[in-house]
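REQUEST FORM: STRUCTURE PREDICTION
Request ID: SP-0412
Submitted by: Lab K.M.
Chain count: 1
Length (residues): 214
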Amino acid sequence: MDFYGAANPTKTVTASSSSISRLTFNYDRAARLQLSLTTAAGYALPTGLRSITLGNTGLQPSGTQVKDIGTGGSATITTLWPFSDGYTIWAGSCGQSDPAAAGGSRASAVVVPSNGSATTTTELAPLQVNVTTSTGSAISGATVTATALSTTSCVASENPLTLGVTNSSGQLQTSLPAGSWTLKVTGKTAVGAWPITPELVPGAAAVTVGVSAA
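STATUS: Completed
RESULT:
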């Protein structure tokens, strides 16, 4: 396989008379990564999150690659190039979800060996959302979504990202990738403006945001 996980990489070259054309291929045996998303105790993963981002300068041109891991919160990624310096990994696909862009720092790189496997966890930032009416009454059963303040590179399932449903007290204890997010309630109108979270950083203390809707 090549740097980008292609099992049978191909390149195109134009041949002409009296000339020599050369192509370079990099290949190695695939590495596997077993990954699980985590968050603070008592908080859930966002129900709609299905992407993680891998970072390595060898992944040209951006130095990153987004992988779809489904919504189960864990997955095995089977076609990775075994970079000797490993991969930094964070939750989400949006450019702002890089913890280094949100005022934090990326987790230590995970090295995955050629024809071998590694296991790691990737942490999200815990968030409590309190949804109420304009008079302060709790709204139960409300579906809460989050839209990245900067939607650059966001996949469709994260624009917006479904977080979950409020309990009988109008509360939702959930989590988000790094960055600032606009919180909304599906099928409701904001009382005032939809709130924006502060810059969230995985591993930091939980943040509470109130949402007033009608």
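NOTES: The radius of gyration is 21 Å.
Reviewed by: T.R.
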